[in-house]
Each structure stands twice: as C-alpha cells, then as structure tokens.
Amino acid sequence: MALFAVLALGLLLGAPCAQAEGAPGKTLKIAIKESPPFVMRDPQSGEWEGLTIRLWREIAEKLDLTYEYVPLDLSDMLKAVESGQADVGAAALTVTAERETAMDFSHPYFTSGLGIAIPSRAETSLLGSLMESLFSWPFLKAMAALGALLLVTGVLVWIFERKQNAEQFGGSALKGIGVGFWWSAVTMTTVGYGDKAPRTLGGRIIALVWMFAGIITISSFTAMITSALTISSVQDAKVKGPADLLTARVGAISATTSERHLNRQGVRAVIFPEPDEALQALADGKLDAVVYDAPILRYLINEKYAGVAEVLPGRIKREEYALAYPQGSALREPVNRILLEYRNSQTWRDAVMDKLGAQDGGWAF
C-alpha cells in the first residue's frame, strides 16, 4: 500500500511539469537553423520564412502557442533540444536512429534524400555535336589517313590499268591518278558506280582487296562518329553516380547526415560549414561533387548557381524531415495531430510546389 501511494504521488507531481511545456502564457523557444527553402530569413523584412516555418506557424496558431525563434547552427540546435533549453527544433532536420535516442521527433512532414550536385554538363544540339566532332583534331587526322589510303589505292589501280584500260584510266598521270582516286572512293562507299572497272588481273586483285577493306573502313568511321557524338552530348562528367564518389573530390556539410553517410561509405570528403560554401567551391572547380540534402541543393542551385551546377537524378539515401523535441515533451501528440492534417492539405502541397517544383515530390508518406 505504501508503494502504491509513492507511485501515485510521483504521477501527480510529474503531470504538471509535462503540461507546462505547452501551457498558455509560456513563451516556447524554437531552435531554428537556416536551411533554404525550409528555414530562411526574408532579406527585406528580416522575418523568418520557409516551408518549415510555415508549418510551425500553422501548428502554433491552431494550438494557440506563444513562441520565439532562436537561430543556431545544427550542432548547437541539437544540443539545445536534447538538453531541454529549446522546446522545439525546426529546420530541415533529418530523423536518424542516433538522434532518436537523444530526443523525440514528430511525424515526418517531408520525404526526400541525399543528392549529388555536380558541375553543369553543357547541352548541345545534335547539329552542334556533329560539327564539333567533324572539326575535332582526331577526326581530321583520321580523314587525312583515309585520304592517303584512297590515294595509294587509286595510284596502284592506275599503274595496272593505264595501258590496258586506257579509255578509263589513261591520259596524263595527274588525270589517271585522279580517276583512280575517284574509283577507290566510290568503290569503298557504294561498291562502284560501274563507270570505271579494272580489267587487268592486278587491277582486279586490288579491287577485291579494297572492297573488303572499304567495308571495314566505313564501319570504323561510323563507330568513331557515333562515339564522338555520344561523348559530346553527355560531356562525360567525372561523377555520374554514387560509385564515382570514391575517386572524386567531394564536399559535404559539417555534422550532417551527408558527412556521416560518406564516412560510412569510405568516401573522403572536404567538410564545409554551409552548403552555399560547398556549392561555391564546386562552381570554382575545386570539387567534383557536393553531397547534401537534394531539395536544399536544388533550391540553392536554382537561386544562385543556375547553369553552373546541377543535381543528378535520383537519391542516394532516403531521408525524412521532422520537428524535434526534448524527450517526453507534452507537445508531441498535439503537434502531431495538426501536422498530419496539414501535411496532407492542398495548402502544403502548393507551398512545396512553389519552393521546389514538381520534381522533388515533397509531401511525406
């Protein structure tokens, strides 16, 4: 009986403390970390805005909460939430098993993942690619070699045919060699027009050998042009996917899931405090790729680095964003109810579409 009384007293004393976290009149401290387009400051008004800020305002209005924002870096924000110095952590904050052991999370409100930003690959038209290939030094050298081969074949045929087939290969040396060059060219491409044909045994042997050699030569040139067009259109970026990160110069953001993921994969990365600095290094040619949250990379590139960088299709690791609270927070359940309703609304979908476009999806599932 005494034990029951002690337990009951503990419950009675503990309940007011839990309720006090969201009690009317208390000003909640909302730890935020700038991460456009989820948390960012309006340059004109100085007010905080973004997708996560919009979500929190909706929640706070429905629950009639008073709050103030406390801007921090990611590491300090996590420490503040874990220690209870902040009541809520609101940013593009990824839910991880490690963080879950130190704090509580809301239901996810956005699902995306880590993406890879690379320098933009120049896009050229098919005609532009063809012209670039035709006037490249390797192609011009190949054409010169082909011309020399046609000339040698033409001279050999002329030598055999100039006397016994004078009506077709006769005349001056210049004229006869010119006719031989013509014959070798049309034989290679069309197996002859029929206007010129060798009659001597030596000329016919040359013709037979050249017909088969011509097939091989045409096939080789076709393959070379196709390969040149493919390389020109793709611009062969150094990083085409996650497998290429092991041998590339890669940037990541300090204390984030991108840094931890690369460490686990054995990728040596240059660490930057903010994604903007990493993207600037990418634009300056100091990096081959930047790994970070795909929606944030895409937004920053659209805003500041359009035409300089791009995000590869696909995600290398699924991630979910959620609000964070100190463990045992009384805010969790009421916030979750409003969050679930709001994230499925057309208002939220429109907000995501406005900031990120259709290609990122945006609403959690």
UniProtKB/TrEMBL annotation:
GO terms for molecular function: ligand-gated monoatomic ion channel activity. Residues 1-20 form the signal peptide. It comes from Magnetofaba australis IT-1. The chain crosses the membrane at residues 139-160, 172-193, 205-231. It is a multi-pass membrane protein. This is Putative family 3 extracellular solute-binding protein. Pfam families: Lig_chan, SBP_bac_3. Its main location: membrane.
